[in-house]
What we know:
Layout: E1 3-12, H1 19-29, E2 33-38, E3 44-51, H2 52-66, E4 70-78, E5 87-90
Parallel strand pairs: 2-5
Antiparallel strand pairs: 1-3, 1-4, 2-3
Amino acid sequence: MSEKQVHIYYSGTVQGVGFRYKTLHVAVKYNLSGWVKNLPDGRVEILAEAPEEDLLEFIKDLESVFGLYIKQKQISWQKPSGQTQGFEIKFY
């Protein structure tokens, strides 16, 4: 399994519904490193690093829970930076 970094922006009704806390819970389940945060424009931003298969399962789990709240998503894949440890909720 190759390590990857995924950077995701979700928009819709994604703030005020427990999105960040569920993201943290699911990220820990898959042993991801990175962070999640609310943005001032109402979106949620996620940056996560792990083996690609784990990241795909992570995204699938999140979207199975919050699919009705998500109206749009932007996903980009990069090489991992290796600069993240653990997973946290960031506050802007």
